[in-house]
Write a structure and sequence with these properties.
10 helices; 8-stranded mixed beta sheet; single chain; Rossmann fold; two-stranded parallel sheet; alpha/beta; globular
Length: about 290
């Protein structure tokens, strides 16, 4: 009875205050500068020197998104955007681009070193990007980067969008309901089905999701409107977003002409590239991108 009472108190506090899931999902952290290869904080993995990117191909950008300046990094020759294939990487909820720099570097080695351009951004309120994180802000900020690429000559058929964890929301949204550009292919790593499923998994309570979050994200429903090819990758030991209640639901709801998946044995939420093996990871993504039908 005492535990039940405490649970009711906690739920009441969550519902009548700002202490909601949103504060955990938008796990942003302010910094004073981007350190990239000199970053020594927590990371999912650190690549060896063979994956280093020449300094002249690392471009730190400021892009206007609505009323805010957001920060982005483009790996590649900006002058070749009009002819290159570009992977736009939408990172997860943790902190800022330094945490995901190793992942962006890894993607710059798909099908050979620096064969494709790679763009990554910090959503508003993350890292050095201005503003406060919001659901619509995710979509606006990623689309602002797509618009920047479009103005540099990128076309739909050369755009690949990759969403990891929280980044699966803008990646799926902008594939289902394109704005500036329509991605030709969609890659989702450890995606979440919806804010409601995340609440149910996290609390083990059959209660309305709005007790815990104001987010309306529903990737499992939006994916029904995505007809582009889909690659889904997920760890079987993901303790944050269970692959059966999240990724598998999204995968089954996709009705496009082509889709494939890769489940990584014993991989937790941030361990997919490492547990998969970097070469295998790059080969899997490269093969998917090279598909012509």
């Amino acid at each position: 009875m005492r535990k039940y009472f405490l649970l009711i108190v906690i739920i009441s506090l969550l519902h009548h205050s700002c202490l909601k899931l949103d504060n955990q999902l938008f796990n942003n952290q302010k910094i004073t500068e981007y350190k990239l290869d000199n970053y020594t904080g927590e990371q999912d993995f650190v690549l060896d020197a063979s994956y280093n990117i020449p300094s002249h191909l690392i471009n730190l950008l400021t892009i206007r998104s609505g009323n805010y300046n957001i920060k982005a990094i483009y790996i590649g020759d900006i002058n070749k955007i009009s002819t290159d294939t570009i992977i736009v990487y939408c990172h997860g909820n943790k902190w800022h681009m330094d945490f995901y720099w190793q992942r962006a570097k890894l993607l710059a080695h798909v099908n050979g070193k620096n064969r494709y351009g790679v763009m990554m951004m910090d959503y508003r309120g993350f890292g050095l990007s201005e503003g406060k994180p919001t659901e619509e802000g995710l979509y606006e900020d990623v689309d602002a980067c797509l618009n920047w690429l479009k103005n540099k000559g990128l076309t739909d058929n050369r755009l690949i969008i990759y969403g990891f964890s929280l980044g699966s929301a803008p990646a799926t949204k902008l594939s289902a309901e394109p704005r500036s550009l329509k991605p030709s292919k969609l890659i989702l790593e450890a995606p979440f089905a919806s804010a409601a499923v995340m609440v149910q998994d996290g609390t083990q309570l059959n209660m309305p999701a709005d007790y815990f979050t104001n987010l309306k994200i529903n990737n499992a429903d939006l994916i029904k409107k995505v007809h582009q090819p889909l690659l889904w990758i997920h760890g079987t030991k993901d303790n944050f977003l269970n692959y059966k209640t999240h990724g598998e639901v999204i995968y089954k709801n996709h009705s496009g002409l082509f889709k494939e998946y890769y489940l990584v044995n014993d991989a937790d939420h941030g361990e997919v590239p490492l547990k998969m093996g970097f070469s295998n990871y790059l080969n899997t993504i490269g093969k998917f991108i090279r598909r012509t039908n």
